[in-house]
Amino acid sequence: MERKSKIERLTELFQRLQLAPTCSNWIDARKQLEDIMNAVEDEFSGIPFNPDAANAPPDGRMYPPHDKYLRDSGSPLIHLFRHLRHRTAFGVNGAVKITLSNGTVVLDKPGADGQTVDELYTEGVQ
Amino acid sequence: MNPFGTILSIIESLFPDIKTAVTGPKQDDGVWSLEVDLADNSISVDWERGVGFGISTVRAESYGERPDEMYPDAITALARLITLLGLKQQTAPQTPIMLSELRERRSYTQAALAGKLKIRQPTLSAIEHREDVQVGTIRSFVEALGGKLELLAVFDDVCYVVDTKLARRRSKAIAVPPIKRWFTSLSVAPPDDEARDEEEGVPLTLSYAIPL
What we know:
Number of helices of chain A: 3
Oligomer: heterodimer
Number of helices of chain B: 6
Shape of chain B: elongated
Helix content of chain B: 25-40%
Number of strands of chain A: 5
Shape of chain A: globular
């Protein structure tokens, strides 16, 4: 197995997410992120998946967003998760936006209707 | 309720230039977060009911991990936070780390570290991706980064610091039971005068799960 550092695995994750088909709802978009992240970690981390990772000490593997990190996004159209360094926002239309805590956008993918998370925000507050 | 009230009032008085942000969970049983920025040191503090406070230095490679360090109450978490901010320290996850990640955390490029080790950059890259690396090589790698290599043999009831400078000593095989996920065995090959590499010392073979 080829092992990669976390930065390399994150880069791989964002590339695969960008190339993956667009989703039409936030449940599918979240599932897609979970599936791709777990696939990348299975391939390159060398660390087995822990189904109870959200309640366990860190094991060196990266894990998808967990419900207990869900935040109030300020819009009924956006589901927002907060992580150590990233914010992951899913739009009800399947859009996904991942932002670093310093504001740098690392992924901004529209949903099946072509609208991005930012466009949904604008719509949601009108 | 804001679980960070005490922590906030004290760190804001100790560090006037500090920037803080608190976010609460959407669900009652979710995780609260306090983000702290002071100069170029970013620290995240989590609080979860029944679990306590988790503290992590924010790094580029973070996504979805649990906090590096856990503290049962606000006072112990506050003490650690003040230390991290005051001394500009970083938290360290108690998990195995790849050599390449270690280098990145010490802010070295492959080229810079290779230069310090007086080897070529492709050789350094090969070392970082090799499955089996001699302890002497790891020691040189760590020392070039400014650190010191310590090798622990961990048993259920006791830990031993293993002497990694065995080049000029007679030695025999040491068996270490598989007590930790990342150390499954440690053996020291008997000295072989013809094959001995004075620079690297006696070859030690480590079988471990961490990718070195």
